[in-house]
Specification:
Layout lengths: L2 H7 L13 H22 L30 H35 L2 H29 L33
Helix pairs in contact: 2-3, 3-4
Length: about 170
């Protein structure tokens, strides 16, 4: 038994000191919260991102809380739409991570039959991506040159057009 366990067993109930939160963590959580609120509000409010009714490069006003850009678009509207896109972009990998962790835990702790089934299914998924890439390369033809510069391409550049196509060239004597 360790000294800590002995003190606890004897009734020594000192308060446990909590570690102070990091300032970086607090600032990060506040910023993510602000972005989440902006994204939620942008789903409710009717936004017109292409509306150029504001003047060019106006400062903050009652109608344009953050001002306008050089085309007269509202910066708050652009910020809200960007927050929505940022959260949607971050949510996809998060959902994928949760599903992947759940499948990985199921494969690790379940029966060998389930583990083999999940492994075979993932092998098929991984192989299908490689096969798709090989099919695309085979269809396009294996070359490091751009498609337009290949000799079999109908779009190949053959030099400048002849400025006088109907005139006869130098006559032979």
């Amino acid at each position: 038994m360790s000294a800590v366990d002995a003190q606890t067993a004897l009734g020594d109930r000192r308060p446990v000191r909590r570690r102070a939160r990091s300032a970086t963590l607090t600032v990060g959580l506040v910023l993510v919260g602000v972005i989440a609120v902006l994204a939620a509000v942008s789903l409710v409010v009717a936004l017109r991102p292409t509306d150029t009714s504001g003047g060019r490069l106006e400062g903050p006003t009652g109608t344009h809380w953050l001002g306008t850009d050089k085309l007269g678009r509202d910066l708050m509207t652009q910020l809200m739409i960007g927050a929505r896109i940022a959260l949607a972009t971050g949510a996809g990998p998060s959902v994928g991570a949760v599903i992947g962790i759940a499948v990985g835990l199921a494969a690790a702790f379940a029966s060998a039959w389930l583990d083999d089934t999940i492994s075979a299914a993932l092998d098929v998924v991984i192989a299908s991506r490689c096969l798709l890439a090989m099919l695309i390369v085979a269809a396009q033809g294996a070359s490091l040159a751009p498609r337009s510069s290949r000799s079999d391409s109908p779009c190949r550049h053959r030099g400048p057009p002849d400025p006088h196509p109907h005139e006869a060239g130098p006559q032979e004597q």
